[in-house]
Amino acid sequence: MKVTILGSGTSTGVPRLGGEDGKADWGLCDPEEPRNCRTRVAILLESEAGSRILVDTPTDLRSQLLANDIHRLDAVFWTHDHADHCHGIDDLRPLRYGRAGPIPGFAASETVRRMRQRFGYVFAGQHGYPTLVSLDNLDVVRLCEGFRVDHTQMPHGPAQSTGFRFESDGKSIGYATDFSEITRGMIDLFYGCDVLIVDCLRREPHPTHAHLAMSLELADVCRSGTTVLTHLDKSMDYATLSASVPENVLVAYDGMVVAP
């Protein structure tokens, strides 16, 4: 099993639009370092047998899939319905072509409800166009395309986000993006993961996201093998951050591949 970090940036990406003098805003990130150029977060898991699971459909999805030569998906999971995690959903349309049926999709019940309101045409078809995705509640799935899937709800400020644990080929990958505190359910879910990909917006505390100390705390209490920091903003320079974290902690970048 392996995981590809399709995007590693926060909701505005890096660099951010609207910098001074009409220039891109790189913040503290070195613009000469390609790994500081970050699109919105998503991951792609691939089993040894070749099954592919996408987590989230960010607004940069088309460019991410093209950059990583991904032209087929077997299922999609969503962490929550915030725009940077789901508003690229239309980019799934070409991946529906040639399939006998819609792409299987899964999310927590509240995310399902809100996404059905917003993207009804995706899940029910419209004007002769086929259904793109069959959206179901996470509670109906434990096995998907050869992956065992477990999940928990995580606090995300006033909202919630779903944390996932995927297991295949005797290995485990945890995905914890967009959380603002550590819960018992998260520790139980992510404990002993071979790879834990974790939200790490910035160094200072934030009301809806994990900061560096919280991210490292989750990795420590869960005793993860390798930790990957993602959802990074413009204050998190790749080289500077890499030099300041423990040896088993990696800083995510777009296109990064990690195999447990």
TrEMBL record:
Gene3D superfamilies: Ribonuclease Z/Hydroxyacylglutathione hydrolase-like. Keywords: Hydrolase. GO terms for molecular function: hydrolase activity. InterPro entries: Metallo-B-lactamas, RibonucZ/Hydroxyglut_hydro. It comes from the Bacteria. It holds the Pfam family Lactamase_B_2. Residues 39-232 form the Metallo-beta-lactamase domain. SMART domains: Lactamase_B. Transmembrane segments: none annotated. This is MBL fold metallo-hydrolase. The lineage of its organism: Bacteria, Pseudomonadati, Pseudomonadota, Alphaproteobacteria, Sphingomonadales.
